[in-house]
Every structure is written in C-alpha cells, then in structure tokens.
Specification:
- The structure is a homodimer of 294-residue chains.
- Chain A has 294 residues and is mostly helical.
- Helix content of chain A is 71%, strand content 1%.
- Chain A is built from 15 helices and two strands.
- Chain A has a two-stranded antiparallel ribbon with strand order 1-2.
- In chain A, helix 4 packs antiparallel against helix 6.
- Chain A is globular, with a radius of gyration of 18 Å.
- Chains A and B meet through helix 2, helix 4, helix 6, helix 7 and helix 8 of A and helix 2, helix 4, helix 6, helix 7 and helix 8 of B.
C-alpha cells in the first residue's frame, strides 16, 4: 500500500472513531431513529470531505484534533443529503455503496427524520470546533450553513430535479455541480483551514482549490456512471441516463468530459502553488481523486 | 383589544419583519425553493415560540433586539418540522392554518428540501445572537440543537408515528408531548433568557415553565381536535381519531384532559413565582394560552 493510501486509511479510521463518539448511540431512544441515523453514516463512505478538512488544517499548521468536529460535521451533512436525495420522491435510489438506502431499510418517514436528525447534529458538532484568533464559533457555524444551504447543496438538488428530462447547457450543468458538490467540498477545506487560523489569502486558495476539485470530482462521477457497472460503483449504474439526467458526457461527450476533469484539477492545483511545500498532501489527494479508473 | 393582545400583535409583527429580513429572498435562485421556504413561514402562524423567546429576554432585563435571531431560529425550526410532518409519508396533511401545505403547493420533493433549507437557515441565524458574559455562540447553537434533535423534536415525531394504531399509556403519551412540543417551547424560553445573560437559577425556572406550558399546550391541542371544527381550527379536525392516534381525551377522557391542562399550567406558573414581578408578561401569556375556547 502506498504511503498516501496508508494516510487515507488512517484518517478514515480516525474520522470513523470520531463519528461514533459524536453521534447519539443506537440505544438512545427512539432506537429506530438512532439506528437509521447511523445506518448511512457507517455504510462504507470514503470520508473524502472530512479527510480534506483535516488535511487543510494540518497543511497550515493546525491539528487534526482541532479540525475533527468540523470534519465530522461536513461528513454528516453530506450523508444527510444522500439520505434525502435517495428518497422515492427524489432520485428514488434503492442502493448506495452496495447497501440498501435508509428509506429501504427503515421506511420513508424514518428516513426523512433520520436526515433531519443528522443535519441537526452536524450543527451541534461543528459548534464544538475550538475557536482561534481569526475564527470564532459563529464563523464555523455560518461557514457550514453556507456550504449546505438553499443556495448551495440543497438548491443544487432542486436545480438537478428541475433539470431532469430537459436539455441543459454546459453552463447550467456546471451551476448544478457548483451548488450540489463543489460548495461543500470547498466548505470542508475552508473549515479545516479556519480551525488552523489561516490568513484570508490561504482561505481563498483553499476555496478555489476545493471548488475546482469538487467540479472535477463531479465530472468524473458523471463519467463513471456511464463507463462502470453497478457492481464496480456500488450503486445503480446508468441511472443518470435512465432518468434522462443531464451529465457532462451527455452534453459534451466522453473524451471532452475527461479533458474537462483534467482542466479543473489543474486549476485546483494551481491555487495551491504558492503554498506548494505546505500543501503537498492536498496536492496528492487531488491527484489520487482524479486518477480513478474511468 | 386588550393590552396583552396589542402586545402579542406587536411582537408578532416584529418577528414577521425579522423573518423577512433573515430568510433568503423569493427571488434568490432557485426561486421555487425559496418560495417554498417562505410559503409555510408566512402562512399566518401565531409566532408563539418567538414571542416566548422575546418575552423571556425582556423579563430578565435583556432586549428583544438581542433575542431576535434566536426567536426567528425557533420559529423556523418549528415551521420546518411542520413541513416534514405534513408529508404524505408522515401525517399526510393537505391543510395547515387554512392553507395548502408545502408539498401540496410545491410537490413532495421540493417540500422535503424546503424543510432542509429552513433547518439549515435556523442555525445560521441563531449563530448571530450577540454573545454575553455567561452565554457564547456555542451555547445558543447547541441549545437550539438540543431543543430540536433526534431525542427531542424529531424523536417525538418518530414516537408519534410508532404509536399510531396502538393503545398508549398516559406516560407514553406524555413522553411524546415532551419530546415533540415541550422541548422546543422550553428551548425558546431558554434561548431568550440566555441572550439576557440570566443566572442558572432563572434559566432553570424558564425551562420548567416552558416544559409544563408545552405539555399543557399539547393537551389543549388534543382537546381542540375533538371539540372544534376544521373551519375553527384552520386544519383538518378529528384527524387524530381518524388515524387512530393516541390523544389525551382518548386515554383519560375529556374532563380529565381539561383538568390535566390546568394542572400543568399551574405547575408552569409556579416555576416563575420567585420572579413574579419580572415575569408578569410570561404569566399573562401562559394564562392566555390556557384560556383558549375548548
């Protein structure tokens, strides 16, 4: 296993342990609800967002320990959004990471409420991030909200639903990806940086890095949906085409999509150039994410 | 109009104005989502929770201005919970305060997301509450979360759903009401008190007042569902009995329910006795809430 993979594995384990600690136990009443909240959290996620949060903190002299509440909060936000997006009235997905989605396992009503419970916990947890000179609790809470609110994460899902069956332009599709994916990725990096008391200049660099990484990541996801099987993905393949959802490959073609993913990653990496030595790990992670098998 | 009614009217208007200011505009993109978020917020709510929050602040020497972010946050939390509770997979209610519920007006998927958007905004807003000596942003955020999380507000809805069609004991029903109604009412009063930098003793008194007021309020709601028409209620009457939901009148009878409401209100009022002069307004509001026509 490469050094990077060992690092990712170790960070993933640290995040898993922290999530287990932060979230209410399965035995807490009502037990059904707390089981339904843990079900999607411990379903084998890669912990990409929290790992980026921790790496951003460590890159700029902060500690994983101080960044951990924010790291867990972004993962919980990501997870709640998947639970709600998978609902029958939304994307109607039965399978996620090879496991039954929350509404399949616990019923639609409990899945809605489990999502609500996770979203609420995320804010209680991010508020535990230690304050530093430049950034106070208010900045962490508002920062999390502004990565995931009705203009960003949630708004992106609405745009996505509204776009189904329509022919979107590339610009419209980028707008959906920006809201639905890039904002929370950028937010993860920003919160990590904030916990390390970074300067406004470094915070801006992390934002640009995160936004472009997020866009690249989403283009790659679109590509994989076309090129891989359900088994390889751990979720239903060909789903986008089946519901006539606009994707990068559908709009600009497969080859142009691959080039776009490369261009966006280059743009992301360029943002960190001024801090090359410190940001080596973030750079590595970006390469790792782009070099997925597609 | 009595002095109290004028006061309630004025507070309601102040809360409405603040909510208009705090929430994203209808024109913000995606417009459908932001319209769907404002729809249930400006549907003629009584603003009971924010008014209690403001009154608690003012009772103990704080200002309505400082308490306003917290007041709006609790109203937004209350509203998102109604939007999700009304969904077809939950209580399946088409009518709320005489108007179509959010999923009827905007579709089920947008209603889920509008609720998520409101919940997210509530935390961004409560984090704006000015800090004071005893209470920091962290206390407001965690205080809000702990009034509305999977053990309280959301857990109560799960217990409520699980109880449908079953014969519950009085203790089980009280537990549902505590989680589903009393916790957020107590939280509203606590947050208001916190913004006024109250002592732990006063915070405890506000908590006991709020919890018992909330329980009384819920018992009265159960009574009204039996005794009033759909027109009087502005929501579907007889709904509880129709879905075979456990209610106070169903378990202990109508007369005993009325006595229970009175007993709980007395208990609430007793908590404020040591601060009788300061808490006169809270006392008046409690009387006003109990003296509804049932």
């Amino acid at each position: 296993m490469s050094e990077l993979k060992r690092y990712l594995k170790a960070q993933q384990r640290a995040v898993d342990a922290a999530l287990r600690r932060f979230l209410p136990r399965e035995s807490a009443r009502p037990a059904t609800l707390h089981k339904a909240m843990r079900h999607p959290i411990f379903a084998g996620g890669k912990r990409l967002r929290p790992i980026l949060c921790l790496a951003a903190a460590e890159a700029f002299g902060g500690s994983a320990e101080n960044a951990m509440p924010a790291a867990c909060a972004v993962e919980i936000i990501h997870t709640y959004s998947l639970v709600h997006d998978d609902l029958p009235c939304m994307d109607n997905d039965d399978l996620r990471r090879g496991k039954p989605t929350t509404h399949v396992a616990y019923g639609e009503n409990v899945a809605v409420l489990a999502g609500d419970g996770l979203l609420t916990e995320a804010f209680a947890i991010v508020a535990q991030t230690p304050e530093c000179r430049n950034y106070k609790t208010r900045h962490y809470v508002v920062g999390l909200a502004q990565s995931a609110d009705s203009r960003r994460l949630i708004g992106g899902q609405v745009l996505d639903l509204e776009g189904e069956g329509k022919s979107l332009t590339k610009a419209q599709l980028v707008r959906i990806h920006e809201a639905k994916t890039a904002a929370l990725l950028a937010g993860s990096l920003r919160l990590g940086g904030m916990s390390a008391n970074v300067s406004p200049r470094k915070l801006e660099a992390l934002t640009i890095f995160g936004r472009n990484l997020g866009l690249a990541f989403q283009v790659i996801d679109d590509i994989l949906d076309v090129t891989q099987s359900t088994e390889q993905l751990g979720k239903t393949a060909g789903k986008d085409a089946a519901v006539d959802k606009a994707t990068f490959p559908a709009i600009v073609g497969l080859e142009a999509s691959k080039k776009e993913a490369q261009r966006l990653t280059d743009k992301a990496l360029a943002a960190l150039k001024p801090f090359a030595r410190q940001a080596r790990r973030l750079d590595e992670i970006a390469h790792y994410l782009l070099d997925r098998d597609y």
